[in-house]
Amino acid sequence: MAELLKDMYNYESLHEIAKRIQSVYHPFRVDEFLKSTMDQSWNDLELKARVRKISSNLGRYLPADYGDALAILDQVVSTCSSGFFGILFPDFVEVYGQDEKNWNLSIKALERYTPYSSSEFAVRPFIINQEERMMAQMYAWSKHESEHVRRLASEGCRPQLPWAQALTKFKKDPAPILPILEQLKADPSPYVRKSVANNLNDISKTHPEQIAKLAKDWYGKNKDTDWIVKHGCRTLLKKGDREVLEIFGYQNADCIAVNDFLLDKTTVAMGEDLCFSFYILTDEATKVRLEYAVDYVKASGKRSRKIFQISELSLNKNEKKFYSKKLSFADLTTRKHYPGMHAITLIVNGAERCNADFELTENNM
């Protein structure tokens, strides 16, 4: 069984970080810190709750003066941060650094810590509590020389950042975000560009017409910006938004014929695969976006749709192409299957063209 992400915070890793802190701050009480952190509630805590427990307890054993505490953490952050593990450093800033008197210290610390483990979660309460001031800071960060800090400018203000506190005001009105995305729309770093695209995709879920307009304005001027726009419109493309599809050249699908759409069986046992195949043929040169939707049966007995991309291609007049796809019904950590009548639908340039039902049954072996 795969190790849970939360288990990266264990006795060995916390003992190591505590010893490193003690090496630069001798009064740090390693054993007491570990005991108070990994108490009787520890095993039941999920990932972010563990992070908060660690950062909160660090404040109990570091100097009471916030600036002095940061100076100590500054000396160990580069040796203790690896991937998500180091998120506890910006979390310390979130817990202890939101007072007005600590504002400047906190902003500089978030900037310093984000290259080691992103400060994207920790900036959000600063935005919520002092939106105008913090968004001005985020815009300033969007011009920073470090790609990590520029990414923070975008990632930190995503309206629907996963695992993060929602920015409800930005879900209602994303206008404060747009100057930052405008500044970063042709950023030289793929790391930053992906964040900009994800921010656009977040906004598209509540303001699709605004992202469609922005996509028209941005697309076709810079190849890096074009990638951002395409990736940022992925939810709208999956929804078959006609305006957005046309931006990328996916016109009406009437010229595209679909033939011999077939399933290899109509009854599938859990753990087995289902195969389907079809031909497409176009009577004029055109761009084609192919997807298929699966209506999965959920635990409640209702069905929920998931859309998968097959291909994006350009076809010449009278060109014919064959496709064969395999769909697995083995359970995954991200999807559990339930018996019942499912459906599969082929989607061409956003339009549903063919569909078929099939039954998923219990595996009685």
TrEMBL record:
Pfam families: DNA_alkylation. InterPro entries: ARM-type_fold, DNA_alkylation, HEAT_type_2. PROSITE patterns: HEAT_REPEAT (PS50077). Gene3D superfamilies: ARM repeat domains. SUPFAM superfamilies: ARM repeat. This is DNA alkylation repair protein.
